[in-house]
Fold this sequence. Notes:
431 residues; five-stranded mixed sheet; 14 helices
Amino acid sequence: MTPEGNLQRLSELLDTDHERPANNKYVEARNFTAELLDLPPSRVYFTYIGKVSNFGVRAVQSTAAMQAAVVVALIKLRTEDAATHRAAHKLAMRTGKTILMLQRPSDESREWQVMGGYFVAAADQSRRIAERIGSAFSTTSLPLEGINIDPGEAAATAIDYFESLGLSGEGLGAALSNRQDISSIVAFAAASSAAGLSAAEAAVIAQRRSLVAELKDMIADPATTETDLHRKIKGQYWIFGGRYTGVARGSIVPMDRYDIPLFCADGSLHIVELKGSHITDLVVRHRQHLIPGKEVHEAAMQAANYIRQLDEGGAAMETLYRNSGLNYDLRRGRATVVIGNQDFVNIPEDSARQLGAATRAMVDQTIRTYNSLINRVEILTWADLLDAADRSLRFESEIVENQSRASGESGDTETEVVTGDSDGEDNPGLF
């Protein structure tokens, strides 16, 4: 669809009484825009701005507003365009959100047009979103203006934003003392306020879904090595599910070095062994059937030997670790081998023996059969691991969005909560 067509469709979805307080009146418009921008719906927030002075309130008045990356502001027709732009500029600079302003040429018109907007130029995510907005709604130049912020100004606006979340200095200090990266600090600190909790959860889910998407691209590339996957997945152990409470550091058994030794809630050990994704002989033809290839069998036996060593020496090592204050249960552990990608398997038709080409279903069945015959070791492909992680994150995203909607803070109920001069310049506390 062309930019003109996108604006026309959006205008149709926005054909509603904007002054009327109501839940979910912008849901269809939000979903349509989110699809155009390749964002989850929870990251797009629509709001009707009847007064310029309300601009600063809209971005922090609800959970939905807090977790959004894009604010689409429907501006009531007025003559104070300069004041509207000043308010939008301040909001973008203060919160880091991308602001898109739409306006109708008259109160009777049903067609919404791009009035402009702002984004933080130094933020990669904001810049990408602004480019997508340009592609979706503009046929000429980028309709949004990038804001360049110096470090001192950025620090001041960040402090103001934390205060708007209701964050205490104590909560932020605790985050700084326990976290290393700025995104984790913000997420941890935001979770200390009720309004920030869902926003933090949504941000973490979005970050994890981005990682899964990157890993999917990597395993589809034949040039990706086992080392590349090790490096990318390091520290991201949530991807294996929620059964685990931590990861062991260093070597547990002398001479054995595990890729990822995870501990379950009962203290037992689960070893994850990572192998490469580009393995053309993941399964091979043997007579009339398919069987796992040599690399799969070798990886399974490597994991089985790790488990055997733990069974044989587990009791003595448990005592050793217990004396150091660590309660490990090292016997009867389990292992998972992550190896290969079904998409690289290409077993052609064998007309001489009247055997068809191998399908994805046949490859999956071969791996299931192999898993059913070995004990305490599971073979899992990279494709299956990432598909499972993606489904789980989609489910979590829906939960966060439903909780936000159920709380009555879907971002679609508009109430004029700020009074005073419509210019907003006489009330510096708004921004």
